[in-house]
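for the recovery benchmark. C-alpha coordinates below, seq after
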Protein backbone atom coordinates (compact mmCIF):
# COMPACT_ATOMS: atom_id res chain seq x y z
CA UNK A 1 0.00 0.00 0.00
CA UNK A 2 2.80 2.36 0.90
CA UNK A 3 4.73 1.68 -2.33
CA UNK A 4 1.62 2.36 -4.42
CA UNK A 5 0.87 5.60 -2.59
CA UNK A 6 4.47 6.75 -2.83
CA UNK A 7 4.36 6.24 -6.60
CA UNK A 8 1.35 8.58 -6.79
CA UNK A 9 -1.61 6.18 -6.75
CA UNK A 10 -4.75 6.46 -4.66
CA UNK A 11 -5.34 3.38 -2.56
CA UNK A 12 -8.53 2.26 -0.80
CA UNK A 13 -7.96 -0.56 1.67
CA UNK A 14 -10.81 -3.09 1.91
CA UNK A 15 -9.96 -5.55 4.68
CA UNK A 16 -11.96 -8.59 5.67
CA UNK A 17 -13.17 -8.84 9.27
CA UNK A 18 -10.51 -11.48 9.91
CA UNK A 19 -7.79 -9.25 8.41
CA UNK A 20 -8.55 -6.58 11.03
CA UNK A 21 -7.47 -9.03 13.73
CA UNK A 22 -3.95 -8.82 12.28
CA UNK A 23 -3.79 -5.12 11.37
CA UNK A 24 -6.46 -2.81 12.78
CA UNK A 25 -8.58 -0.28 10.89
CA UNK A 26 -6.87 2.80 12.44
CA UNK A 27 -3.53 1.66 11.02
CA UNK A 28 -4.99 1.30 7.52
CA UNK A 29 -6.85 4.60 7.77
CA UNK A 30 -3.74 6.46 8.90
CA UNK A 31 -1.56 4.94 6.21
CA UNK A 32 -4.05 5.21 3.33
CA UNK A 33 -5.54 8.56 4.39
CA UNK A 34 -9.02 7.17 3.78
CA UNK A 35 -11.72 5.55 5.90
CA UNK A 36 -11.73 1.77 5.99
CA UNK A 37 -14.79 -0.47 5.97
CA UNK A 38 -15.36 -4.19 5.81
CA UNK A 39 -19.11 -4.14 5.46
CA UNK A 40 -21.71 -3.30 2.82
CA UNK A 41 -23.92 -1.87 5.59
CA UNK A 42 -21.83 1.19 6.35
CA UNK A 43 -21.77 4.27 4.16
CA UNK A 44 -24.90 2.98 2.37
CA UNK A 45 -25.81 6.22 0.47
CA UNK A 46 -22.59 5.93 -1.58
CA UNK A 47 -23.49 2.35 -2.58
CA UNK A 48 -19.88 1.47 -1.84
CA UNK A 49 -20.38 -2.24 -2.59
CA UNK A 50 -20.86 -1.33 -6.26
CA UNK A 51 -18.94 1.91 -6.57
CA UNK A 52 -15.57 0.74 -5.22
CA UNK A 53 -15.22 -2.03 -7.80
CA UNK A 54 -16.26 0.35 -10.59
CA UNK A 55 -13.85 3.03 -9.41
CA UNK A 56 -10.76 0.82 -9.15
CA UNK A 57 -8.28 0.54 -12.02
CA UNK A 58 -6.54 -2.34 -10.28
CA UNK A 59 -7.53 -4.68 -7.45
CA UNK A 60 -4.77 -6.40 -5.49
CA UNK A 61 -5.68 -9.01 -2.88
CA UNK A 62 -2.54 -9.57 -0.84
CA UNK A 63 -2.43 -11.81 1.02
CA UNK A 64 -5.28 -13.80 -0.49
CA UNK A 65 -6.27 -16.37 2.12
CA UNK A 66 -7.47 -19.87 1.27
CA UNK A 67 -10.85 -18.68 2.51
CA UNK A 68 -10.93 -15.62 0.26
CA UNK A 69 -9.93 -17.68 -2.80
CA UNK A 70 -12.80 -20.07 -2.03
CA UNK A 71 -15.34 -17.28 -1.56
CA UNK A 72 -14.21 -15.43 -4.68
CA UNK A 73 -14.29 -18.55 -6.86
CA UNK A 74 -17.81 -19.35 -5.62
CA UNK A 75 -18.95 -15.78 -6.29
CA UNK A 76 -19.94 -15.24 -2.66
CA UNK A 77 -20.63 -11.57 -1.90
CA UNK A 78 -21.01 -11.24 1.86
CA UNK A 79 -18.66 -8.37 2.63
CA UNK A 80 -17.28 -5.26 0.97
CA UNK A 81 -14.22 -7.02 -0.47
CA UNK A 82 -16.14 -9.85 -2.15
CA UNK A 83 -18.87 -7.55 -3.51
CA UNK A 84 -16.15 -5.28 -4.89
CA UNK A 85 -14.53 -8.29 -6.59
CA UNK A 86 -17.84 -9.00 -8.34
CA UNK A 87 -18.24 -5.44 -9.60
CA UNK A 88 -14.61 -4.81 -10.62
CA UNK A 89 -13.95 -5.03 -14.36
CA UNK A 90 -10.30 -3.92 -14.06
CA UNK A 91 -7.34 -6.32 -13.73
CA UNK A 92 -7.48 -8.33 -10.48
CA UNK A 93 -4.26 -9.66 -8.98
CA UNK A 94 -4.50 -12.18 -6.15
CA UNK A 95 -1.43 -13.16 -4.15
CA UNK A 96 -2.20 -16.35 -2.22
CA UNK A 97 -0.29 -16.84 1.03
CA UNK A 98 -0.86 -19.71 3.44
CA UNK A 99 0.71 -22.83 4.87
CA UNK A 100 1.96 -25.31 2.28
CA UNK A 101 -0.73 -27.89 3.10
CA UNK A 102 -3.50 -25.34 2.58
CA UNK A 103 -1.92 -24.09 -0.68
CA UNK A 104 -1.46 -27.60 -2.08
CA UNK A 105 -4.91 -28.81 -1.04
CA UNK A 106 -6.98 -29.80 -4.11
CA UNK A 107 -9.76 -27.46 -2.96
CA UNK A 108 -7.45 -24.43 -3.00
CA UNK A 109 -5.89 -25.48 -6.30
CA UNK A 110 -9.33 -25.94 -7.90
CA UNK A 111 -10.39 -22.48 -6.69
CA UNK A 112 -7.20 -20.96 -8.13
CA UNK A 113 -7.82 -22.66 -11.49
CA UNK A 114 -11.41 -21.39 -11.57
CA UNK A 115 -10.28 -17.83 -10.84
CA UNK A 116 -7.54 -18.04 -13.49
CA UNK A 117 -10.00 -19.27 -16.10
CA UNK A 118 -12.07 -16.16 -15.36
CA UNK A 119 -9.05 -13.91 -15.98
CA UNK A 120 -7.90 -13.30 -12.42
CA UNK A 121 -4.13 -13.02 -12.31
CA UNK A 122 -2.62 -15.25 -9.61
CA UNK A 123 0.91 -14.55 -8.41
CA UNK A 124 2.02 -17.91 -7.01
CA UNK A 125 3.47 -17.82 -3.49
CA UNK A 126 7.20 -17.95 -2.92
CA UNK A 127 8.81 -20.82 -1.13
CA UNK A 128 10.33 -19.88 2.23
CA UNK A 129 9.80 -19.37 5.93
CA UNK A 130 6.11 -19.50 6.91
CA UNK A 131 4.39 -18.29 10.09
CA UNK A 132 5.69 -21.09 12.29
CA UNK A 133 9.09 -22.75 12.25
CA UNK A 134 8.24 -24.44 8.96
CA UNK A 135 9.27 -23.52 5.42
CA UNK A 136 7.84 -24.33 2.00
CA UNK A 137 5.65 -22.91 -0.76
CA UNK A 138 3.08 -20.48 0.64
CA UNK A 139 5.03 -17.36 1.53
CA UNK A 140 3.77 -13.99 0.30
CA UNK A 141 6.14 -12.62 -2.39
CA UNK A 142 7.96 -9.34 -1.71
CA UNK A 143 5.75 -6.23 -1.86
CA UNK A 144 7.92 -4.85 -4.70
CA UNK A 145 7.16 -7.87 -6.89
CA UNK A 146 3.42 -7.53 -6.22
CA UNK A 147 3.36 -3.79 -6.99
CA UNK A 148 5.45 -4.22 -10.16
CA UNK A 149 3.21 -6.99 -11.48
CA UNK A 150 0.04 -5.09 -10.53
CA UNK A 151 1.13 -1.94 -12.34
CA UNK A 152 2.26 -3.91 -15.39
CA UNK A 153 -1.23 -5.46 -15.53
CA UNK A 154 -2.78 -1.99 -15.64
CA UNK A 155 -0.29 -0.89 -18.30
CA UNK A 156 -1.20 -3.99 -20.30
CA UNK A 157 2.42 -5.09 -20.45
CA UNK A 158 1.89 -8.32 -18.51
CA UNK A 159 -0.13 -11.28 -19.69
CA UNK A 160 -3.34 -11.95 -17.78
CA UNK A 161 -2.84 -15.65 -18.19
CA UNK A 162 -1.12 -17.51 -15.37
CA UNK A 163 -1.72 -20.76 -17.19
CA UNK A 164 1.68 -22.20 -16.25
CA UNK A 165 1.35 -21.80 -12.49
CA UNK A 166 2.14 -25.07 -10.66
CA UNK A 167 4.41 -25.96 -13.59
CA UNK A 168 8.19 -26.39 -13.47
CA UNK A 169 9.61 -25.33 -16.82
CA UNK A 170 13.21 -26.27 -17.62
CA UNK A 171 14.80 -24.33 -20.47
CA UNK A 172 18.25 -24.61 -22.04
CA UNK A 173 19.55 -21.50 -23.75
CA UNK A 174 22.66 -20.12 -25.43
CA UNK A 175 25.42 -21.88 -27.33
CA UNK A 176 27.86 -24.43 -25.96
CA UNK A 177 31.61 -24.02 -26.48
CA UNK A 178 33.92 -26.98 -26.95
CA UNK A 179 37.50 -26.14 -25.95
CA UNK A 180 40.46 -26.88 -28.21
CA UNK A 181 43.03 -25.43 -25.85
CA UNK A 182 42.93 -22.89 -22.96
CA UNK A 183 42.10 -20.00 -25.32
CA UNK A 184 40.23 -21.48 -28.29
CA UNK A 185 36.93 -23.24 -28.70
CA UNK A 186 34.46 -24.52 -31.29
CA UNK A 187 31.29 -22.51 -30.81
CA UNK A 188 28.18 -21.30 -32.57
CA UNK A 189 26.30 -18.06 -33.09
CA UNK A 190 23.44 -18.62 -30.66
CA UNK A 191 22.92 -15.57 -28.41
CA UNK A 192 20.44 -17.22 -26.05
CA UNK A 193 17.80 -14.53 -26.73
CA UNK A 194 14.99 -16.93 -27.68
CA UNK A 195 15.65 -19.14 -24.63
CA UNK A 196 15.73 -16.09 -22.35
CA UNK A 197 12.47 -14.80 -23.87
CA UNK A 198 10.91 -18.21 -23.19
CA UNK A 199 12.15 -18.13 -19.58
CA UNK A 200 10.74 -14.63 -19.10
CA UNK A 201 7.34 -15.41 -20.57
CA UNK A 202 7.07 -18.76 -18.72
CA UNK A 203 7.88 -16.91 -15.48
CA UNK A 204 5.26 -14.24 -16.22
CA UNK A 205 2.71 -16.96 -16.93
CA UNK A 206 3.25 -18.32 -13.43
CA UNK A 207 5.79 -21.10 -13.97
CA UNK A 208 8.75 -21.95 -11.78
CA UNK A 209 11.58 -21.66 -14.28
CA UNK A 210 15.05 -23.21 -14.36
CA UNK A 211 17.36 -21.92 -17.07
CA UNK A 212 20.44 -23.95 -17.99
CA UNK A 213 22.49 -21.26 -19.68
CA UNK A 214 25.53 -21.55 -21.94
CA UNK A 215 27.31 -18.28 -22.76
CA UNK A 216 24.29 -15.98 -22.93
CA UNK A 217 24.80 -12.64 -24.70
CA UNK A 218 21.85 -11.15 -22.79
CA UNK A 219 21.21 -11.07 -19.04
CA UNK A 220 19.21 -13.94 -17.56
CA UNK A 221 15.79 -12.79 -16.31
CA UNK A 222 15.09 -12.10 -12.62
CA UNK A 223 12.97 -14.61 -10.78
CA UNK A 224 14.41 -17.58 -12.65
CA UNK A 225 16.94 -20.15 -11.30
CA UNK A 226 20.01 -20.05 -13.51
CA UNK A 227 22.57 -22.84 -13.87
CA UNK A 228 25.57 -21.85 -15.98
CA UNK A 229 27.32 -24.42 -18.15
CA UNK A 230 30.04 -24.26 -20.79
CA UNK A 231 30.15 -27.42 -22.87
CA UNK A 232 27.60 -29.85 -24.32
CA UNK A 233 28.61 -32.48 -21.78
CA UNK A 234 28.06 -30.07 -18.87
CA UNK A 235 24.70 -29.09 -20.33
CA UNK A 236 23.77 -32.77 -20.62
CA UNK A 237 24.59 -33.42 -16.94
CA UNK A 238 22.59 -30.41 -15.69
CA UNK A 239 19.60 -31.05 -17.95
CA UNK A 240 19.48 -34.70 -16.82
CA UNK A 241 19.58 -33.62 -13.16
CA UNK A 242 16.88 -30.96 -13.52
CA UNK A 243 14.57 -32.81 -15.92
CA UNK A 244 13.43 -35.22 -13.22
CA UNK A 245 11.34 -32.55 -11.48
CA UNK A 246 10.38 -30.63 -14.63
CA UNK A 247 6.94 -30.75 -16.25
CA UNK A 248 8.05 -28.97 -19.41
CA UNK A 249 11.51 -29.25 -20.98
CA UNK A 250 12.41 -26.75 -23.68
CA UNK A 251 15.68 -27.38 -25.46
CA UNK A 252 16.36 -23.95 -26.99
CA UNK A 253 20.17 -24.04 -26.66
CA UNK A 254 22.41 -24.62 -29.64
CA UNK A 255 24.40 -27.63 -28.49
CA UNK A 256 27.59 -28.61 -30.34
CA UNK A 257 27.18 -31.96 -32.09
CA UNK A 258 30.93 -32.59 -31.99
CA UNK A 259 33.86 -31.74 -29.74
CA UNK A 260 37.61 -32.04 -30.20
CA UNK A 261 38.90 -35.48 -29.22
CA UNK A 262 41.80 -33.96 -27.28
CA UNK A 263 41.79 -30.68 -25.40
CA UNK A 264 45.37 -29.35 -25.34
CA UNK A 265 46.51 -28.23 -21.90
CA UNK A 266 48.82 -25.56 -23.37
CA UNK A 267 47.95 -23.11 -26.13
CA UNK A 268 48.50 -24.69 -29.56
CA UNK A 269 51.52 -22.96 -31.11
CA UNK A 270 51.60 -21.46 -34.57
CA UNK A 271 54.86 -23.28 -35.40
CA UNK A 272 55.86 -23.67 -39.06
CA UNK A 273 54.55 -26.51 -41.20
CA UNK A 274 51.02 -27.81 -41.60
CA UNK A 275 48.28 -26.79 -39.13
CA UNK A 276 47.51 -29.55 -36.63
CA UNK A 277 44.68 -31.92 -37.65
CA UNK A 278 41.36 -31.43 -35.85
CA UNK A 279 39.92 -34.78 -34.76
CA UNK A 280 36.31 -34.57 -33.55
CA UNK A 281 34.11 -36.92 -31.59
CA UNK A 282 30.33 -36.94 -31.14
CA UNK A 283 28.70 -35.19 -28.17
CA UNK A 284 25.74 -36.74 -26.32
CA UNK A 285 22.34 -35.91 -27.88
CA UNK A 286 20.86 -34.04 -24.90
CA UNK A 287 17.24 -33.94 -26.09
CA UNK A 288 17.06 -37.55 -27.31
CA UNK A 289 18.68 -38.64 -24.02
CA UNK A 290 15.99 -36.84 -22.00
CA UNK A 291 13.00 -38.03 -24.04
CA UNK A 292 14.29 -41.61 -23.77
CA UNK A 293 13.72 -41.51 -19.98
CA UNK A 294 10.65 -39.28 -19.95
CA UNK A 295 8.00 -39.46 -17.26
CA UNK A 296 4.32 -39.61 -18.23
CA UNK A 297 2.88 -36.09 -18.49
CA UNK A 298 6.15 -34.36 -19.35
CA UNK A 299 6.10 -32.12 -22.43
CA UNK A 300 9.25 -31.77 -24.56
CA UNK A 301 9.96 -28.92 -26.94
CA UNK A 302 12.84 -29.21 -29.42
CA UNK A 303 14.33 -26.64 -31.77
CA UNK A 304 15.74 -27.14 -35.24
CA UNK A 305 17.86 -24.53 -36.96
CA UNK A 306 18.04 -25.38 -40.66
CA UNK A 307 19.40 -23.75 -43.78
CA UNK A 308 16.46 -24.73 -45.93
CA UNK A 309 13.50 -23.39 -47.95
CA UNK A 310 9.96 -23.52 -46.49
CA UNK A 311 9.12 -27.02 -47.81
CA UNK A 312 12.42 -28.52 -46.73
CA UNK A 313 12.04 -26.84 -43.35
CA UNK A 314 8.68 -28.50 -42.73
CA UNK A 315 10.02 -31.92 -43.77
CA UNK A 316 13.07 -31.46 -41.50
CA UNK A 317 10.86 -30.30 -38.60
CA UNK A 318 8.54 -33.33 -38.86
CA UNK A 319 11.50 -35.72 -39.09
CA UNK A 320 13.21 -34.18 -36.06
CA UNK A 321 9.95 -34.24 -34.05
CA UNK A 322 9.86 -38.02 -34.47
CA UNK A 323 13.61 -38.71 -34.31
CA UNK A 324 14.06 -36.80 -31.05
CA UNK A 325 10.84 -38.10 -29.49
CA UNK A 326 9.56 -34.62 -28.59
CA UNK A 327 5.99 -33.33 -28.48
CA UNK A 328 6.59 -29.94 -30.07
CA UNK A 329 9.26 -28.87 -32.52
CA UNK A 330 10.08 -25.30 -33.45
CA UNK A 331 12.02 -24.94 -36.71
CA UNK A 332 13.54 -21.88 -38.26
CA UNK A 333 15.55 -21.04 -41.31
CA UNK A 334 18.94 -19.68 -40.27
CA UNK A 335 20.44 -19.28 -43.72
CA UNK A 336 22.26 -16.02 -44.51
CA UNK A 337 22.79 -15.23 -40.82
CA UNK A 338 19.04 -14.94 -40.08
CA UNK A 339 17.74 -15.26 -36.52
CA UNK A 340 20.99 -15.59 -34.53
CA UNK A 341 21.46 -12.54 -32.33
CA UNK A 342 18.31 -10.82 -33.70
CA UNK A 343 15.52 -9.65 -31.45
CA UNK A 344 12.97 -11.13 -33.86
CA UNK A 345 12.35 -14.65 -35.06
CA UNK A 346 10.23 -16.47 -37.60
CA UNK A 347 9.48 -20.13 -37.14
CA UNK A 348 7.11 -22.97 -37.83
CA UNK A 349 5.83 -25.16 -35.02
CA UNK A 350 4.87 -28.79 -35.54
CA UNK A 351 3.54 -30.97 -32.76
CA UNK A 352 2.24 -34.47 -32.19
CA UNK A 353 -1.38 -33.33 -31.67
CA UNK A 354 -1.88 -31.22 -34.81
CA UNK A 355 -1.95 -32.11 -38.48
CA UNK A 356 -1.19 -28.59 -39.71
CA UNK A 357 1.99 -26.71 -38.81
CA UNK A 358 1.62 -23.30 -37.16
CA UNK A 359 3.71 -20.33 -38.19
CA UNK A 360 4.82 -17.75 -35.73
CA UNK A 361 6.87 -14.58 -36.02
CA UNK A 362 7.68 -11.23 -34.52
CA UNK A 363 9.57 -10.46 -31.34
CA UNK A 364 11.23 -13.40 -29.61
CA UNK A 365 8.78 -12.72 -26.74
CA UNK A 366 5.79 -13.11 -29.07
CA UNK A 367 7.28 -16.32 -30.49
CA UNK A 368 7.86 -17.54 -26.92
CA UNK A 369 4.18 -16.95 -26.11
CA UNK A 370 3.00 -18.92 -29.16
CA UNK A 371 5.30 -21.82 -28.21
CA UNK A 372 4.01 -21.71 -24.61
CA UNK A 373 0.40 -21.69 -25.89
CA UNK A 374 1.12 -25.01 -27.64
CA UNK A 375 2.83 -26.30 -24.47
CA UNK A 376 -0.31 -25.43 -22.45
CA UNK A 377 -2.45 -27.38 -24.95
CA UNK A 378 -0.20 -30.40 -24.45
CA UNK A 379 -0.30 -30.09 -20.67
CA UNK A 380 -4.08 -30.24 -20.94
CA UNK A 381 -4.42 -27.05 -18.92
CA UNK A 382 -5.88 -24.85 -21.62
CA UNK A 383 -9.55 -25.81 -21.18
C1 LIG B 1 -2.26 -16.62 13.30
C2 LIG B 1 -3.07 -17.00 12.10
C3 LIG B 1 -2.46 -16.98 10.86
C4 LIG B 1 -3.20 -17.33 9.73
N1 LIG B 1 -2.57 -17.29 8.53
C5 LIG B 1 -3.26 -17.61 7.42
C6 LIG B 1 -2.64 -17.52 6.15
O1 LIG B 1 -1.47 -17.15 6.02
N2 LIG B 1 -3.34 -17.86 5.08
C7 LIG B 1 -4.63 -18.28 5.17
O2 LIG B 1 -5.22 -18.61 4.11
N3 LIG B 1 -5.25 -18.37 6.33
C8 LIG B 1 -4.60 -18.03 7.47
N4 LIG B 1 -5.22 -18.12 8.69
C9 LIG B 1 -6.61 -18.52 8.73
C10 LIG B 1 -7.51 -17.35 8.36
O3 LIG B 1 -7.27 -16.26 9.23
C11 LIG B 1 -8.98 -17.76 8.40
O4 LIG B 1 -9.21 -18.76 7.43
C12 LIG B 1 -9.90 -16.59 8.18
O5 LIG B 1 -11.22 -17.04 8.30
C13 LIG B 1 -9.72 -15.96 6.79
O6 LIG B 1 -10.68 -14.97 6.58
P1 LIG B 1 -10.68 -13.97 5.36
O7 LIG B 1 -10.36 -14.77 4.13
O8 LIG B 1 -12.09 -13.44 5.33
O9 LIG B 1 -9.69 -12.91 5.62
C14 LIG B 1 -4.53 -17.74 9.84
C15 LIG B 1 -5.13 -17.74 11.09
C16 LIG B 1 -4.42 -17.38 12.20
C17 LIG B 1 -5.13 -17.38 13.54
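predicted aa per position
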Amino acid sequence: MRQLRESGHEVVVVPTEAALRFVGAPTWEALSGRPVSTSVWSDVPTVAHVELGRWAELVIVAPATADLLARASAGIADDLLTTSLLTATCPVLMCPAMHTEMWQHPATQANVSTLQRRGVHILPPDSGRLTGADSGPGRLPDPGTIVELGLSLVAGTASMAADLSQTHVLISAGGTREPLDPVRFLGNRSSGRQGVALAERARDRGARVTLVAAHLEVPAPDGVSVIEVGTAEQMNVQMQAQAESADVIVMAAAVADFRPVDVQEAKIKKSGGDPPPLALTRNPDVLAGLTAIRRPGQVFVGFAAETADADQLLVAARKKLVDKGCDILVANDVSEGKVFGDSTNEAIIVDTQSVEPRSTGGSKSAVADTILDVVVEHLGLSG
